[in-house]
Design brief:
9% helix, 7-stranded mixed β-sheet, mainly beta, 2 helices, single chain
């Protein structure tokens, strides 16, 4: 997969914690809207960015807020592959177990839903 670099800024007020297990340890994938441009109505448009996994022990320390950058590099993907066994998200109470883009972009009130629902960026590098 070819890496993509985007310029913009994160909105931590609309951040999602997606419950995940990694090597037997409970934690979260942090998904944050990343605003890249304004549309013709001057509304900020975004793409959802999976910023990576955070141990459940560090959840309250908000370490994922640091490193806010103007550039992010990663690969585009469509979110988690869901099966009939996948646990459903409960967006009404902000409980997420998978990265279902249509739910996240709707709650975040991202105006470019059609584009934002197509792909998410999985980050592997940020420029300070």
């Amino acid at each position: 997969m070819k890496p993509v670099t985007l310029k913009g800024h994160f909105d931590h007020n609309k951040e999602y914690k997606v419950s995940k297990m990694l090597n037997g340890e409970y934690g979260y994938e942090i998904v944050t809207p990343f605003y890249t441009h304004l549309n013709e109505k001057e509304e900020p448009c975004a793409i959802m960015v999976n910023r990576g996994w955070l141990s459940g022990d560090l959840d309250r320390f908000r370490l994922h807020y640091f490193g806010d950058s103007n550039n992010v590099t990663g690969v585009l993907y469509r979110g988690d592959a869901l099966t009939k066994y996948s646990k459903k998200n409960n967006p009404q109470v902000m409980e997420f177990t998978n990265t279902k883009l249509d739910e996240m972009t709707l709650i975040s009130q991202i105006p470019n839903k059609e584009e934002a629902n197509a792909f998410m960026l999985k980050v592997y590098d940020t420029d300070e």
